[in-house]
Amino acid sequence: MDGKASTAQNYLERMLFDERVKPIKLPLSLLEAITKNFSDDHEIGRGGFAKVYKGRTRNGMIAVKKLYKTLDMHEQKFIQEVQCLIKVRHKNIVRFLGYCADTQGEMTDYEGKSVLAEVRNRLLCFEFLPNGSLYEHITDASCGLEWRMRYQLIKGICEGLHYLHENHIVHLDLKPGNILLDNNMVPKIADFGLSRCFDENQSRDITSKLIGTPGYVAPEFYNGQITFNLDMYSLGVIVMEILTGQKGYSTVDKVLESWRNRLEIAQQETSLHQVRLCVEIGITCMDANPENRRDTKYIMDKLKELESSYEFSEDAFSFNGLEKDSHRKDGAAANKEPTTVNGTNKNGIHYYISPTRPHVVSTHEILGAHERQSQQADNRSNKQYEDPILTKQSESTMAPAHAVQVNGGVEPEPWSGCFRS
């Protein structure tokens, strides 16, 4: 490895430990060294644009995406895309570390003769995410990831897509395979924007053959309509797939029933409200009419609204003195009979805290538990208990998604590049 490559490697090592360090241009010799000259045993994936290799550094690993040399890419568009990637910084977007655009002399055939030609090597480097893609973790609701994890995945994907749309970036190929997971299962969106680097004819060809992933692409995509609504349709499919383990439509009642049977009693109130909202988001986003799909801002507002309605605050509880007595240094409270603590959150929902089982449960859940015990003893028909917290929807199926009304407003115009100048 030459001196230039060694200096770049030191900088790259710093970048892995400090997110404030900005991406840089990396020499081809360094990328060849850390991927063992792009050996097959370092390959971790491939797609329509590139092969992906893992690069081993002294203190970690990175993902090196080597674009196919056969792609007729405009140099200026590639530089613009790199500038775009440098600006994109969000916890739910795969972090960009650097790029390479070096030329290299290679023997090639020209008019029946072998000639030495200068070939441009274009590579993009990103953080390495060890848990693979979302595709590898999707299962139905009866097994696999618990609800809390699935909800965090949905929320993180929505936050990442909202960031892209706020910065006028259309992904064009959002699917589970392009959502990567870090050590903590935080979702990060990858592989956006490369279609803008090619000439018009090639871009159209790539769009029709590679980006339009069956099952995730919106109907209007093949008519050449490139808008934010394309990504919203793909988001809807992904949300439903996380909820149910399969692509396609499902009713709110059906998904709720599936999760109601799996969730523990203490989780049901909050979790089923989350399930319901996520199902409605998924179904609405999958509407065949793009004008009926919600945008990311609406979705983020609804998620925040739901979460704020279940926030707990110490100020929301009025204690009966147990907390102070139980922490007295003189131990005067040690012989006191255990008492309960009652509280009310800011929405007026009453809660019960047991001193012998120090967790918070809703009084509605306590009443529900007693009611279930009574029914198990007295109801010989074994009729399934109806959770008193959630009012079950009518037996009629949910109205088609296209019947949902949307708020008016002007949607920001997507740009062919990443940011307006």
From TrEMBL:
Pfam families, per database record: Pkinase
SMART domains: S_TKc
Residues binding ATP: K66
Tagged with keyword Transferase: yes
UniProt keywords, alphabetically: ATP-binding, Kinase, Nucleotide-binding, Serine/threonine-protein kinase, Transferase
An example Gene Ontology molecular-function term: protein serine/threonine kinase activity
Biased composition (Polar residues): 337-347
Region (Disordered): 326-347
Domain Protein kinase, residue spans: 38-313
Similarity comment: family membership: Belongs to the protein kinase superfamily.
Name used for this protein in its record: Protein kinase domain-containing protein
Lineage: Eukaryota, Viridiplantae, Streptophyta, Embryophyta, Tracheophyta
